[in-house]
Each structure stands twice: as C-alpha cells, then as structure tokens.
Design brief:
This protein is an alpha/beta fold. It folds into two domains: 17-163, NAD(P)-binding Rossmann-like Domain (Rossmann fold); 166-200 and 227-294 and 315-340, UDP-galactose 4-epimerase, domain 1. Helix content is 36%, strand content 15%. The strands form four sheets. Strands 3-2-1-4-5-6-11 form a seven-stranded parallel beta sheet, sandwiched between helices. The chain has a two-stranded parallel ribbon with strand order 7-10. It has a two-stranded parallel ribbon with strand order 8-13. Helix 3 links the parallel strand 4 (86-89) and strand 5 (124-127). The two termini are 31 Å apart.
C-alpha cells in the first residue's frame, strides 16, 4: 500500500475543518479516511446526511459529522462552509435523472461552490476527470470540462484532480465486468477493446487529495492521476475473467452498435422502476467515454503533476483488485482453481 507518512507543507491549527461535498460516495469515504489520518475534522456535506452516518467510525468521536447540502442551492453551500478551513468537491452524477443533470451539477453547482469558497479565501480541491474536453461526444466528460472552466473563473487558485478509471472495492468498473462474467457466457468488448486505460487505486486518489490541501505551490494547478499500468479495455476484461476464474467468450462490438444497444438499455432502465440489473445498465454516454484513451498526458508527467510528482507510489491493479474480485468465483477466495 502507499506510504501515508507525509510532512505537511502548510501550518494548520490542530482543529482544522475540511468540508467534503459528496463525501459519502465511493471516492469520498476514502478521502475522509485520508483526512482523518492527518488530524482534520471533517464535515460531510451531502443531500441525505442520514445516509452518511456510516462514515463516523472512520474517525474518533466527534471528528466526522454530516450536514445537508445540495450544490443546486447556494444557501445550503454557505451553511455547510461555516467555520471551514478547506473544501473538497467530489459531487458528480454518472446518469442524468430528474433535476440531477450534468450541467446543473458539474457546471452550475461547481461554480456556486467555487464562488462561496473564493469569498472565504479557502483552498479548494475539485474532482474532474482525465480527458475533460468541452467538445467531447460524451456529455458527462464535456460537462466536467465546462465545470473546470467555471471553477477557474470563480476560484483561480482551486486545485483540479483528473483521475483515470478509479478502482477499489466498491468500484463500478471492475465489479461490473466481474458481475457480467458471473452470469453471461459472452462478454462484449466495445470498439474491439483497443481503448487504453490507466486505472488508479481509490486510496491513491484519496491520498493525493489530502496531500494537495497542504501544498501551497499546488494552488491553481491540475493533476492527472493514473496507476502504474496502462491496460486496454480487452486486457481489463481478460484480467477480470482470470481473477474470477470464468472462461468467457469475448465478442468485439463496434461502437455504433454498442451505442444503439446502450440506448435500448437506457430506455428499459428508465421504465424498470429500479429493477433493471445494474451491470447491464450501460448508457450511450458510457460508450462515448470509451471512444477515447483515458491515460495521463505526457505534459502532466513532464510537469510532475501526477501521483509520482506528489511522492505517491501508486498501487497497481494486480495488487489490489483480486482481493475484492474473488467473491465472483464459484467458491470465493477458496475456489479450487477450475474455471467455470
């Protein structure tokens, strides 16, 4: 695992308070753990604070508390920031449902938070994604780029993080393919599986987030976070099948056909009242994301705006993922090694 011993570059008081917007999600719980290790008090700002109580045992009594906040309502942002020393924005949506639209959350909401943070002179770390581009065919990643621009306009000193595919026990990537492999004899490989990915461990993303709050020279910079391995989509699926000990047929599906099938699953999912299998709920935006490589740029590497530049020895997929993918074997971690 990454070495968490680190010397702070910024003299904060012992009772420093970080407000983590969207802290109850997959990445958020790991960010909170990294902050707690540094002695921060953490205020988790979420839409449903009653669903974030599971985070409290991460710290000592009183170190973590939850409050109600929604980036679409500026007054709730202001209330959540009272007494804060720093803010972290992890709020994001992968699917557009009702009022939870990409632009409403990733652009307008991020801008509202940045304005509130800037008015208080607080450091801000904002989570975006590698490949953020306003011209992207993916509405999701295009909104991430517009969100970055809105953040920069309101709070030029904000720190932007752009991770590649984030993996860990609760991820929605490796687990999805493993779940498909459990039930289906055939697995789709979109676009021939040639898209390059650089999966990054969620614990390393969390550690980078916490460290950057304490490095004054990081203000206004954008960091690209990727793991030590670059894998094609086909290699990811093959890895999952090997760890889960499932012999499956991999079928190349052209992006055009994949988008059509994704549109059909979107429709079925929208009328299924939540009963549509999550592993099959692939959207057209998911397919659009896979059309472009998702790896750290040479420019970020040269500038040291990476995990290595932060002194973090990134964990690889082989070192972490098997520990939570074993459960997809017929007999879990005690499987006898025969592929099913």
């Amino acid at each position: 695992m990454a070495d968490f011993a680190y010397v702070s570059h910024r003299p904060f008081p012992a009772d420093r308070l970080a407000v983590v917007f969207g802290g109850s999600g997959f990445i958020g719980r790991h960010v909170i753990r990294a902050l707690v290790k540094r002695g921060w008090r953490v205020r988790v700002a979420v839409r449903r604070p009653d669903l974030a109580n599971f985070l409290q045992p991460i710290g000592v009594v009183g170190q973590i508390n939850s409050v109600q906040a929604n980036l679409r309502f500026p007054d709730s942002i202001e209330a959540a920031l009272v007494g804060a020393d720093a803010a972290i924005n992890l709020v994001g949506v992968k699917k557009q449902r009702g009022a939870q639209r990409f632009d409403a959350v990733h652009v307008d909401g991020a801008a509202a938070l940045a304005r509130a943070v800037a008015a208080r002179g607080l450091p801000l770390v904002h989570m975006s994604g590698i490949g953020a581009n306003p011209a992207s065919p993916s509405a999701y990643i295009a909104s991430k780029a517009k969100g970055e621009a809105a953040i920069r306009a309101a709070a030029p000193s904000a720190i932007v993080l752009r991770p590649s595919i984030v993996f860990g026990p609760e991820d929605d990537f490796f687990n999805r393919f493993a779940l498909l492999a459990r039930y289906s004899p055939v697995l789709p490989v979109f676009g021939g599986g040639a898209t390059r990915l650089q999966p990054v461990y969620v614990g390393d993303v969390a550690e980078a987030t916490a460290r950057l709050l304490e490095i004054e020279s990081a203000a206004g910079r954008a960091y690209e976070l990727g793991g030590p391995e670059i894998m094609t989509l086909r290699q990811v699926v093959e890895f999952v099948c090997r760890v889960a000990e499932r012999r499956r047929i991999l079928v190349s599906v052209p992006f055009g056909l994949a988008a059509g099938l994704a549109g059909l699953t979107e429709f079925v999912d929208s009328i299924s009242l939540g009963f549509f299998p999550k592993a099959l709920a692939m959207s057209r935006d998911d397919i659009a994301l896979l059309r472009t490589d998702n790896v750290v740029s040479p420019e970020a590497i040269a500038a040291g705006l990476t995990l290595a530049g932060l002194g973090i020895d990134a964990e690889g997929v082989e070192a972490v993922a098997p520990a939570y993918l074993y459960r997809f074997r017929r007999s879990g971690q005690f499987a006898d090694g025969r592929f099913a």
